[in-house]
Amino acid sequence: MKAKLNLTIDEQLLAQVKAYATQKHSSVSELVESYFRTFIVKKPPEKGIVQLIESLPKPEIQDQADLAKDYFEDNADKYGF
Fold it and tell me: Per its UniProt entry, which superkingdom is the organism in (predicted)?
């Protein structure tokens, strides 16, 4: 159900808004209603970087001791260990 709303607005601005509404094949009422919806409709909360990283699929890794051993073995010739 729609309800009427009276607004007071500068005449020059109203003329520009009416021209814009006509250009967009809309009405001033539809523009105002759409604008009000932008801050009434709740958006889902954005994920922070930590939540985004935690949501990524986890790689299957052998235990950390094996990774360190493999690293040093692979780089022994390069670095002279």
Answer: Bacteria
